[in-house]
Amino acid sequence: MHQFVYPLKRLTELAARDRRALAAAACYLLRASMIYRRQPAAALITRLQRSSGDRRPDERPMPVDADRMLWALDAAGRWLPWRTDCLVQALAADLWLDRLHVASTFHLAVDAGAPADGDPAAAHAWLEVDGQPVSGGRRDPAMTRFAEV
């Protein structure tokens, strides 16, 4: 029981806009997870590459707090009982940004020195808005050896 009391207490101590960001992040992570389960990774990557730059010019973008979005996706992802790794977070951020009519840039990097055994830690995906990351989860210092593809 105590394992749930402390997080709930911390949640009530958050500012209202942080609670709203966490709720939105959880919803977008759920949608992204459902999409992830139905499509192969290659199709998701193609979708992210295409959708990040195709916002209609007549859509007025809304302001985005990149730090809050990054925090909310990471924080919500740690508590959800389904897969919320970097690709799912990038897809969730894309869905969220699409709702706000904000263009983004999708990035995919691989560890050139990693063995080709399908290790999920050998790749990383993230989204940026105006050069600021809005998804990607916790960064590992070893990420500096990754090369963008």
Key descriptive features of the protein:
5 helices, single chain, about 15% strand, alpha+beta, about 150 residues, 4-stranded antiparallel β-sheet
Spatial strand order of the main sheet: 3-2-1-4
Helix content bin: 40-55%
Overall mean pLDDT score? 81
Structural class: alpha+beta
| Beginning-to-end CA distance, first to last residue | 45 Å
Number of strands: 4
Q: What's the total helix number? A: 5
Report the sheet with the most strands, covering strand number, pairing sense and barrel closure.
4 strands, antiparallel
Could you spell the SSE succession in H and E letters?
HHHHHEEEE
Provide the number of structural domains. Answer: 1
Note down, in words, how this protein is organized.
Residues 1-6 have low confidence and may be disordered. Strand 2 (123-129) and strand 3 (132-133) form a beta hairpin. The chain is α+β, with helices and mostly antiparallel strands and 149 residues long. 50% of the residues lie in helices and 13% in strands. It is built from five helices and four strands, in the order H-H-H-H-H-E-E-E-E. The protein has helices at residues 2-13, 16-38, 41-51, 66-79, 86-99; strands at 105-111, 123-129, 132-133, 146-148. It has one domain. The chain has a four-stranded antiparallel beta sheet.
